[in-house]
Specification:
alpha+beta; 5-stranded antiparallel beta sheet; 3-stranded antiparallel beta sheet; 1 helix; about 30% helix; elongated
């Protein structure tokens, strides 16, 4: 009787084939899970960016002395409209006290060279302790709308508004295309 010391060619090919099938299934599963993970991370980041932008705009609106029709800085003029907001804020000295008849301006607007970028610009008076800023709030903006209301919730011109409602939409093209939307309404305290 002869004792077998190894595997037959058929057994080796069978094990290699099964290993290849199992390996390809595991690889496919990891690839699909990685795509789902990336989609979920993109959606979470999109939501966080949207929430952060809404909070920033709300915190700019609350202490504002009002919405202004337009503001000119050098050769650039920014106007309050459906798609942009220009706020006037009282300037502050180094102790945080209000400077009489001195104002800083905040502009919220889509970038002129890339409309997917939402910018927050601060133009501070030279005597103000507030610093000039050019901040990117969102990089995946698809829509921004501002609506201006009086105390009776009637639509008015921006300069007479006591309440500002706004809507932000963001779009993600990573993985599945998705749109997120958020809105808010803020009463101006100083009106």
């Amino acid at each position: 009787m002869r004792k077998s010391l190894g595997f037959s060619l058929f057994e080796v090919i069978l094990v290699i084939g099964l290993g290849a099938v199992v390996g390809s299934l595991i690889l496919r599963l990891l690839t699909v899970n990685s795509g789902v993970y990336n989609d979920q991370i993109a959606q979470v980041n999109q939501g966080l960016g949207l929430n952060s932008s809404i909070s920033q705009i709300e915190s700019d609106l609350k202490p504002a002395a009002g919405v202004v029709t337009s503001y000119t800085n050098g050769s650039n003029t920014y106007s309050s409209s459906l798609n942009s907001l220009v706020l006037k804020l009282a300037s502050l000295d180094s102790q945080g006290k209000v400077l009489a008849n001195t104002f800083d301006y905040i502009v919220i607007v889509a970038d002129s060279s890339n409309p997917k970028i939402l910018r927050r610009r601060i133009f501070a008076d030279p005597s103000s302790s507030r610093k000039n800023a050019n901040q990117v709030l969102l990089t995946n903006l698809s829509l921004i709308n501002f609506f201006y209301y009086d105390q009776n919730d009637l639509i008015v011109s921006p300069s007479t508004a006591v309440k500002v409602n706004f809507v932000l939409n963001t779009a993600s093209n990573i993985g599945k295309s998705s749109i997120s939307s958020a809105s808010s309404a803020v009463n101006l305290r100083n009106q």
